[in-house]
């Protein structure tokens, strides 16, 4: 029998699927009814990823009936009748589409408790999404455990990537149950991310037991100050572990460590961490030094994040960083944090520039992040020296959100010029500078940032009198696409910074329009067509 070939290349399912997979969902929807083949391929693409609450509700609508005479507009869930549902035919329809789903970004499940309860009680099959690969649940409440009990409904054995934000409760049973469910329902995880404002010691103990069972794990992400000795210990002989990281959803505030969560010295073997590329370790300086000096420590790692559970003095920090310099000769990414809560809150330790000189001598460094409870007392000259020392930097964050911001920064705002001149590869810069004092912009030429995508100014002070000068400097320095990110703390400085952002955006838009020749047509402005005096080829 002779094979039939599609009349047009776009009728080839594989090619069509590859094109539509990189198209906006609105484009896919608009072309859904061009042909039967486009419909079959397009519907699979549309159901492949549920990325927001509206798409999640669209999935739930398969199990009920939309009320015709209900409130028009608004969320689908408000018009969904689930009384007496789901019927057998509804489950069949649900199963038809659920096999397409590969990724789900769950909304706050507490808002969909009725639907989740019905699914839990009536589902005819255990695995609702047999081909699900990625599951995110980052929208739950930090202060409310409601909705968390429904999360296991969506945890499938096929999942390889799972991220969850857990509520801030000490010893919360729901939190511990979710953690204990992970290896039972998702045993083949390669990526696990657990974030929380304050993950309890009880939850950490449960997590310690869980990660030991996930033998395929390649990346583990935990809240700050939770990658402790026991976690390092249990992962030491995992064959595939590449990254152990921390992620802060707390906004740089103080992190509380309850009990003795940070105690315990990890023990390494000759086979430990053969595939490791990035390590985060929360320990005091003595334990961290012991780990770094262990003969079996993976000294070839490219990334290291040291988190201090107690505030450290300059001399102790310098000694620790000298060990880092001596041991980790291939570092490209180094991070240092000591913003944990300290019982002696008056115990402030300022870290002078000289503390970090050992790290600045690592020539291949592309990422340097420092988070400290006090502002870094570094001068403009020292920051300029740092910029010269690390020309390959792509991401630099120098404590833009100090926990105690009552002390003014030592460097004035024009210090930004040094980083624009010497660190041309920078894509992200976070820095605590003083924009409240007068400064004069010299008319000499200077290099703007080429690649900067985000300027994080955090809690940097600014006065209303300096707004215009700051806007002029930023307009000359920043690419038009660069975002200015500020602290969420309400303050007079934030009001002034809000005006800076507004004026700078306005100036950027005006400059773009000025560079584009336009002609007036009636009351509208349209871009002029510019052509060269060249004849087209015949």
If you had to describe this structure to a student in words, what would you say it looks like?
Residues 521-538 have low confidence and may be disordered. With 538 residues, this protein is an alpha/beta fold. The strands form 4 sheets. The chain has an 8-stranded parallel β-sheet with strand order 10-11-12-13-14-15-16-17, covered by helices on one side. It has a 7-stranded parallel β-sheet with strand order 1-4-5-6-7-8-9. Strands 2-3 form a two-stranded antiparallel sheet. It contains 16 helices and 19 strands. Among the domains are: 8-47; 48-217, Leucine-rich repeat, LRR (right-handed beta-alpha superhelix) (Alpha-Beta Horseshoe); 375-517, no CATH class. The relative contact order is 0.04. It starts with 12 loop residues before the first helix and ends in an 11-residue tail after the last strand. It is globular, with a radius of gyration of 28 Å. InterPro entries: LRR_dom_sf. This is F-box domain-containing protein.
In short:
Helices cover 31% and strands 14% of the residues. It has 538 residues and is an alpha/beta fold.
Note the topology:
Blueprint: H1 13-21, H2 25-30, H3 36-47, E1 49-50, H4 53-60, E2 65-66, E3 80-81, H5 88-98, E4 103-105, H6 113-122, E5 134-137, E6 161-165, H7 173-185, E7 191-195, H8 201-211, E8 219-222, H9 229-235, E9 243-246, E10 278-282, H10 285-293, E11 303-307, H11 314-327, E12 333-338, H12 357-360, E13 367-372, H13 380-389, E14 395-398, H14 416-422, E15 428-431, E16 454-458, H15 467-477, E17 483-486, H16 492-515, E18 518-521, E19 524-527
Parallel strand pairs: 1-4, 4-5, 5-6, 6-7, 7-8, 8-9, 10-11, 11-12, 12-13, 13-14, 14-15, 15-16, 16-17
Antiparallel strand pairs: 2-3, 18-19
């Amino acid at each position: 029998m002779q094979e039939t070939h599609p009349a047009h290349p776009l009728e080839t399912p594989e090619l069509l699927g590859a094109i539509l997979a990189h198209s906006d969902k609105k484009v896919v929807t608009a072309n859904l009814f061009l042909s039967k083949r486009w419909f079959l391929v397009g519907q699979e693409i549309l159901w492949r990823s549920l990325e927001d609450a509206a798409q999640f509700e669209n999935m739930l609508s398969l199990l009920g009936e939309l009320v015709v005479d209900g409130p028009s507009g608004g969320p689908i869930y408000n018009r969904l009748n689930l009384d007496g549902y789901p019927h057998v035919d509804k489950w069949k329809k649900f199963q038809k589409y659920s096999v397409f789903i590969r990724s789900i970004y769950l909304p706050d499940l507490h808002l969909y408790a009725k639907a989740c309860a019905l699914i839990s009680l009536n589902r005819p099959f255990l695995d609702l999404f047999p081909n699900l690969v990625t599951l995110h649940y980052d929208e739950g409440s930090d202060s409310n455990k409601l909705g968390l009990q429904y999360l296991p409904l969506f945890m499938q054995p096929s999942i390889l990537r799972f991220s969850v934000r857990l509520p801030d409760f000490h010893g919360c049973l729901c939190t511990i149950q979710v953690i204990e469910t992970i290896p039972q329902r998702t045993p083949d995880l390669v990526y696990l991310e657990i974030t929380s404002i304050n993950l309890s010691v009880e939850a950490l103990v449960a997590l310690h037991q869980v990660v030991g069972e996930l033998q395929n794990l390649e990346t583990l992400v935990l809240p700050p100050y939770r990658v402790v000795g026991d976690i390092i210990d249990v992962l030491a002989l995992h064959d595939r572990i590449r990254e152990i990281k921390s992620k802060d959803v707390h906004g740089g505030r103080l992190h509380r460590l309850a009990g003795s969560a940070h105690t315990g010295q990890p023990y390494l073997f000759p086979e430990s961490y053969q595939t490791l590329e990035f390590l985060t370790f929360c320990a005091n300086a003595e334990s961290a030094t012991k780990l770094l000096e262990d003969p079996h420590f993976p000294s070839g790692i490219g990334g290291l994040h040291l988190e201090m559970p107690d505030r450290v003095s300059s001399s102790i920090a310098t000694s620790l960083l000298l060990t880092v310099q001596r041991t980790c000769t291939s570092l490209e990414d180094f991070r240092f944090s000591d913003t944990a809560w300290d019982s002696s809150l008056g115990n402030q330790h300022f870290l002078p520039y000289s503390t970090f000189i050992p790290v600045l001598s690592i020539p291949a460094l592309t990422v340097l992040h420092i988070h400290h409870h006090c502002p870094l007392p570094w001068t403009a000259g020292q920051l300029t020296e740092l910029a010269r020392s690390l020309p390959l930097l792509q991401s630099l964050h120098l404590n833009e959100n100090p926990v105690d911001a009552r002390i003014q920064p030592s460097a004035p705002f024009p210090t930004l010029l040094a980083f624009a001149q010497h660190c041309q590869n920078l894509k992200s810069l976070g820095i605590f500078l003083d924009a409240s004092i007068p400064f004069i912009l010299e008319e000499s030429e200077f290099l703007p940032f080429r690649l900067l995508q985000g300027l994080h100014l955090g809690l940097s002070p600014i006065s209303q009198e300096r707004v215009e000068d700051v806007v002029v400097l930023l307009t000359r320095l920043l690419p038009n696409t660069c975002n200015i990110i500020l602290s969420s703390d309400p303050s007079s400085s934030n009001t002034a910074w809000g005006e800076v952002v507004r004026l700078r955006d306005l100036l950027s838009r005006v400059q773009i329009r000025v560079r584009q020749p336009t002609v007036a047509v009636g009351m509208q402005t349209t871009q002029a067509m510019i052509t060269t005096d060249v004849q087209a080829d015949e």
